Amino acid sequence: MAEQRTPAATDVLVIGAGPAGIAAACTAAEAGLRVDVIDDNPAAGGQIWRGGAPQATAWLDRLARSGASLHPATSVIDVVPREAGPPAVITRAADVSVWQARTIVLATGARERFLPFPGWTLPGVVGAGGLQALVKQGLEVRGRRIVIAGTGPLLLAVAELLVARGATVVAVAEQARLSRLIRFAAALVGHPAKLVQAAGIRRAIGPVLRTGTFPLAVRPEGDAVVVTLASGPSGRERRDDIPCDVVACGFGLVPNVEIARALGCDVHAGGITVDGFGATTVSGVVAAGECTGVGGVDKSLVEGRIAGLVAAGRRDQAGPMVREQRRWRRFAAALDEAFALDRRLAGLATADTVFCRCEDVVAGRLACHRSWREAKLMTRIGMGPCQGRVCGPAAETLFGWSPEDVRPPFSPVPLGDLS
Amino acid sequence: MAERATNAAQAPVRLTVDGVVVEAAAGTSVAAAILNRGGAAAWHVRRSVSGSARGPLCGMGICFECRATVDGLPHVKTCQLPVRPGMEVRTDG
Fold first, then answer.
1. If contacts are CB pairs under 8 Å, which of residues 77-136 in chain A contact chain B?
2. Residue B63 is nearest to which of A40, A70, A386, comparing CB atoms?
């Protein structure tokens, strides 16, 4: 682990050590700047490079040589305005640190969107990306029967990993209809590498892939569970009960914009608002990668490199990268369209389905409220330790509510650290 | 201390989960070590505020559903914590 400095002045503070953050840190550090990278995970790499990948190894080696200091297991807990420059950033690892940076690079990535349905809180019902992360953390799945459900290319990547680790993937339920996926595949022609990747996964997973299919409910049965999948047109769905050990669900990705909001940056439904160079609406704060709009690792890498150049005052060198980035942003838009959520997914929760898992608020208590804020005040939704990071995006999908900002500390902190 | 999960050459780490000794490869997260005890029961890691059984959901430090008591410290997010020798983990399962 890199040394800790408390308090710390630095040229560039990169928040998030996934592909975008690593690319930004390398680019800025190689330009001679003092760079500090923080991440709340115990190792760099973000979600996609967790556990290693050939591309990951090259970038992590480059990061180690770049001179940037990496601070893992470090969470942002608050931000404080300063007279000059972007706000100070307060973090917590073993100690609390106050960072005063000339430039802040937000590379906070994305998380999974979860949607409530009966049984989704049962142990053994896990995120799709969540299961992928746990397997890369050492979870053994050999011989386990697993159903994957939800939407997005991630489902197939998860299925491929699980099969490689000896699990039996019983079904992959993709809510998008086949016609949309075919149109999306046609759009991939401009991205040969992605097309080859998709074709390879399709060969491995094709036989168990069900399109236009979504989970209705999960119920416990003995030492396992049964998931009910629905497919077909609205009102005439075919139902299918599938016994399995684990159900992995994810309904797309949601950009992590909480720290951006706290810094005062404008955000929109798709992520942090940025210009072509990653500049946010707050001077001295740039953003890169999934937090500006979900579009995959290539978009993250090029945006990270642009952010690093901007931090180093070398915006003029970013021209070719900005053109490449436009390509990936079009890819991101195509992803959005292909995997747009079926409206039926907003109607899966019944009145007694838990909606806010932290405070055990059921869906039936929410429909009478007009806004996230009102529901929060009346029911405690979003007031637990995750501060609405799980139920907020669900509330957006089901009720059209925009969750309000998280409050400091952004993650729970022992009282002693707050003095 | 950050450890690379790819470092397979290291000896397994011994820790206890609910008083039972378990072995985990170096770099394994505490959450994975808890679940690797096997069976559906292993996925029951905590109890919600109204007492229902919960297990890990996001695997990436967002949801707090994997939290457990580690070496006496409550509410630790076990998916973001690598195993260490001699660690004592207590779940509410």
1. 111-112, 114, 121-127, 129-136
2. A386
pLDDT in tens, A96-133: 999 999 999 999 999 999 999 999 999 999 999 999 99
Going by pLDDT thresholds of 50, 70 and 90, the confidence category of residue A6 is low
Mutation pick from A92, A113, A121, A137 vs chain B, by most beta carbons of B within 10 Å, is A137
A71-80 per-position pLDDT tens digit: 999 999 999 9
User: Judged by CB atoms within 8 Å, which residues 34-93 of B form the interface with A?
Assistant: 35-36, 39-41, 43-45, 48-50, 52-65, 67, 75, 79-82, 93
Whether ipTM > 0.95 holds is no
- At residue A23, what is the residue type? A
Q: Do B59 and A127 touch (CB under 8 A)?
A: yes
Nearest to A36 by CA among A84, A2, A65: A2
Which chain B residues have a beta carbon less than 8 Å from that of A126?
43, 55-57, 59
CA distances from A285 to A72, A295, A371, B88 (A): 21, 21, 30, 41
Report yes or no: A74 at the B interface, CB cutoff 8 Å.
Answer: no
Put simply, the answer to whether B56 touches A44 (Cβ < 8 Å) is no
